[in-house]
Structures are given as C-alpha cells and as structure tokens.
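Reminder to self: tokens first, then the designed residues, so the page reads top to bottom the way the pipeline ran.
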C-alpha cells in the first residue's frame, strides 16, 4: 500500500504544539497497515517537526524558551525583509528539521509512551502549515 496526502495544520502562534491527533486523524487509512513507514515532510522553511514528550506542557515551554535564547531576533541578520522573526525562524527550522520518519505497526505509528508529534512554529504568526504525509506498508 502506498498513500500520499497533504495535511493542512491549523494556524498557531509561535511555540511548540502537540499535533499528534491532528496528523493521525487526517490519515484514517493507517488502520489498514500492519507494518510500514510514515514519512512526514513539513513544506515550510520557518517551522519544524519533532518527536518529544507529550505529557508535560513545561517541556514545550522550555523548548521554546531555549530556542528564543539560542537564536535571538536581535542579532545582525542580513535577511530581514520578512520581519525580525523570519531569519531566526529559518535557523531554528534548520536545527530541528522539516521531516520525521516513523515506523508503523498494527495500524499506528510506533511511539513511546510519552512521545508525541510536535509542530514547532518559529514565527509569531506563521499561518496554516502543510505536511506531506507518505505511507508505505503491508496490509494488516
């Protein structure tokens, strides 16, 4: 089985946002996969995807706080035409990465007990974000 679909994630403010339910809810066909792979590619250069702890909101806040300190807006950026948050967003997105590849087993991604999928929105108002999801696997 092969499936490819673009998933539009709703707009979010700057921060680290749990999107596991939103992504998986857009892929009901995953239930048909016994073993396979799910590849997710975020089609943007100022946001990123990651897997991290899904229980404590403190983790999300701490990640955002660290990124703000590590990649400040008040730096001597050359690329400034799209606002002061744009170039720092590009750097953060490069550090985190635009894609994830997850194993599939028994109709669902294999994630640890405390793991979830995150959209890291690195702009103040990045707008809706599109993820290209590709599923490849054997039927259950």
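Designed residues (140 positions):
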């Amino acid at each position: 089985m092969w499936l490819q679909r673009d998933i539009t994630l709703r707009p979010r403010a700057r921060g680290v946002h749990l999107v596991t339910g939103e992504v998986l809810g857009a892929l009901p066909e995953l239930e048909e996969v016994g073993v396979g792979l799910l590849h997710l590619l975020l089609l943007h250069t100022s946001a990123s995807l990651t897997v991290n702890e899904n229980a404590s909101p403190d983790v999300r806040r701490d990640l955002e706080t660290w990124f703000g300190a590590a990649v400040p807006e008040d730096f001597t950026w050359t690329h400034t035409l799209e606002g002061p948050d744009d170039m720092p967003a590009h750097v953060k997105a490069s550090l985190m990465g635009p894609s994830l590849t997850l194993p599939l087993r028994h109709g669902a991604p294999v994630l640890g007990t405390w793991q979830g999928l995150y959209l890291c929105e690195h702009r103040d108002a990045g707008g809706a974000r599109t993820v290209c999801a590709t599923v490849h696997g054997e039927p259950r």
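The chain has three helices and eight strands.
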